[in-house]
Amino acid sequence: MGIEFIYEGLLSQKPYSMKLQQQEILTPQEVSFFRENGYLLPGKPLFSEEKFNRLFNIFEEHLKNRGELQPDELDVPHHKDSRLFEFLMADEVLDVVEKIIGPNIGLWSSHFICKEPKTGKNTPWHEDSAYWQGRFNKFDSIVTIWLAIDDANIANGCMGVLPGSHDKGFSEYQEIENNNHKIFNIEIKNKVDEEKIVWFELKKGNYSLHDSRIIHGAHANTSNTRRTGYTMRYFSTDLVLNRTHPNNLQHRIYHCRGENNGNNPLIYL
Fold first, then answer.
1. Maximum CA pair distance of the chain?
2. Where are the extended beta strands (E) located within 132-226?
3. What is the pTM of this model?
4. Residue 183's pLDDT band (boundaries 50, 70, 90)?
5. Cα 42 from Cα 137, distance rounded (Å)
6. The CATH number of the domain where 112 resides is what?
7. What is the pLDDT of residues 224-243, one digit of tens each?
8. Regarding beta strands 142-148 and 227-236, do their DSSP bridges make them parallel or antiparallel, or are they unpaired?
9. What is the domain count for the chain?
10. Structural domain of residue 73, as residue ranges?
């Protein structure tokens, strides 16, 4: 509650206006809040309504044509659908990302994560960086934009984070028993204190930001409404990709902006 109060206070000091949005994508106070807490809830849309609706319709196509995949397993859809680069490479997105990780930006991945009413699975408590261990030389400059394709709330399984857990190092993990999920196969071993969790309740079209190292997860969808997010993950190209890691051999990463100081195998569009 204290963190939420502080953040609301920061926002109230400088109300948003159209002019302010044009001048400051993220305020210095917001960037400072992200660095301290590992997340940010800007409280505004990422795209225009028209542009968001195009993305929404693309997602609906992917959901309809997913084949044997579960609704939350639509990982790296941009690898087979180039239309998504309109959004992944958009200035509206990269201007936000640059405020967090600097001017040298690469696209790491994207993922449609859909929890259908009454059936969506829980997302185990985890750090994204734990699933990528060994794939980069470090993880302090990777950020995820989580864009709400549908309204997200506690009842339909919105994401929650443990504030300040992004600079504690890797947690201890264990295999998930009786698990048939293609994406999440391990979870944090020790119980997470959910009294400290900040839940990301987002209106459709709004977005959140979180550090790759922060502990986060989500409950199952117990409501009558669908919950979908589009995660867009970016890394500083000052980081160095481990080219010999098995999971990196076929993975495609893309140049977005700036210099490739880590000499990474980027794809230039």
1. 52
2. 142-148, 159-161, 173-175, 186-188, 198-199, 207-211, 216-218
3. 0.88
4. low
5. 29
6. 2.60.120.620
7. 999 999 999 999 999 999 99
8. antiparallel
9. 1
10. 2-267
